[in-house]
Write a structure and sequence with these properties.
Elements (H helix, E strand, L loop, with lengths): L10 H28 L7 H29 L1 H20 L4 H87 L13 H9 L1 H30 L3 H28 L5 H21 L3 H29 L5 H29 L2 H22 L8
Helix pairs in contact: 1-2, 1-4, 2-3, 2-4, 2-10, 3-4, 4-7, 4-9, 4-10, 6-7, 6-8, 6-9, 6-10, 6-11, 7-9, 8-9, 8-11, 10-11
């Protein structure tokens, strides 16, 4: 009798899935630097600037659960390939975007496409990993995503300095197309599994079950901290006189810390040396300390200390939360679970900067950062009180 999980794949088979994770994260954050630098040249007002920035995330919030469920019905590989193909096409159209309208169309197309291949890739990683390898595989997958989220603005800025919007969209077109080819050639097709018929009441119960809700809340809090760090640490660094390179270096430090820590945490989880509840709680507390340090003592040295602490905290909490979801979800509805979990991440990615920005506008930036630190501590308390050891779905 099949378990729904697949034999452990080779690195050649899962590598393209990690690259797909990097692509969606880079697509989300890489464009931000380009829009900020090129907004005047393409005739963007403040309002249109904000709308275009938001289109990618809006598409993901709406469509990720839809495409996650679709991957359960038709298979993860077709959804990944289709999403990457559309992402490449939308990015190609962006090369020729000379007006805000066409830029918005390209951005919306990228977001819709990422909504397809991102949760399907997560579901494929979970199916390949199985209950005993979820930490290791999601540690690697998360490290690639963290690179995309945190280094996206750096890479985007470098590309637009070479060739403006055109250079960035060319890079995204090539990246998505190459990833699609690698997925088509190297990733085995995963069989579609028989699914029981779920009522709306069943779906509602599954969505509020602590085994799903708490890890998703952890992911939302971690991604909120990441989104704030990528956006506000450079801003704070500039106000401290660090200059562009010194300010952006804080993001690089955060990215490297998260990238290095996630695979290590995943291996410790699979070996039984690190448990989900204590690990997610510690990770969020470490993140909140990192935010609080730079909020209370805004100095150049504390900026980098904060980056290390936030990166380490995210690197601890993220793979543990994803591994918990992968272990406790029946494989036949893995796509839906990952789509809904990534929806939680998108809410955090948008909500964190909004919270900090709103409070900073009425008070100060340290006050906004302090508020986020308090929220992160609260989520860590919820995790400590309610998250239970994962019980495998089968």
């Amino acid at each position: 009798m099949t378990t729904g999980y697949e034999p452990a794949p080779t690195r050649r088979a899962v590598g393209p899935l990690y690259l797909a994770g990097f692509t969606t994260a880079f697509g989300a954050h890489g464009i931000a630097a380009a829009l900020g630098a090129e907004s005047e040249g393409i005739g963007l007002s403040i309002l249109s600037f904000g709308v275009i920035l938001a289109l990618y995330d809006i598409a993901e919030v709406i469509l990720k659960p839809v495409f996650g469920s679709l991957s359960d019905r038709i298979g993860v590989k077709p959804v990944i390939l289709g999403g990457l193909a559309v992402f490449a096409l939308a990015s190609f159209c962006g090369i020729f975007a000379a007006t805000p309208v066409w830029l918005a169309v390209a951005r919306l197309g990228q977001g819709a496409a990422a909504s397809a291949f991102s949760p399907a890739s997560s579901a494929a990683v979970a199916r390949f990993a199985g209950p005993n390898g979820a930490g290791r595989y999601f540690g690697r997958y998360g490290s690639w995503k963290s690179l995309g989220y945190a280094l996206g603005p750096l890479l985007g800025a470098a590309l637009i300095s070479l060739d403006g919007f055109r250079g960035l969209f060319i890079a995204l077109t090539v990246l998505a197309a190459a990833t699609a080819v690698l997925v088509a050639v190297a990733v085995p097709a995963l069989p579609v599994l028989p699914r029981p018929r779920y009522t709306l009441l069943d779906v509602a119960k599954q969505s509020i079950d602590p085994g799903f809700l708490i890890p998703t809340l952890v992911l939302a809090a971690s991604t909120a901290a990441l989104g704030v760090a990528v956006g506000f640490l450079p801003l704070l660094g500039a106000s401290l006189g660090l200059g562009v390179l010194g300010s952006m270096a804080a993001v690089t430090v955060l990215a490297l810390t998260s990238t290095i820590s996630q695979p290590i945490v995943g291996r410790l989880r699979d070996a039984g040396s690190l448990h989900t509840r204590s690990g997610t709680t510690a990770g969020l507390l470490l993140t909140s300390v990192g935010i609080a340090v730079v909020a209370l003592v805004p100095l150049p040295v504390t900026l980098y200390i904060s980056a290390v602490l936030i990166g380490a905290g995210i690197g601890i909490a993220t793979p543990l939360a994803f591994a918990h979801l992968a272990t406790t979800t029946p494989p036949e509805r893995m796509g839906r679970t990952m789509g809904n979990a990534e929806l939680g991440r998108e809410v955090g990615d948008a909500g964190g900067p909004l919270l900090v920005g709103a409070i900073a506008a009425g008070a100060t930036l340290p006050a906004g950062l302090g508020a986020l630190a308090i929220v992160t501590v609260a989520v860590s308390g919820v995790s400590a009180a309610t998250l239970r050891a994962p019980t495998p779905a089968r």
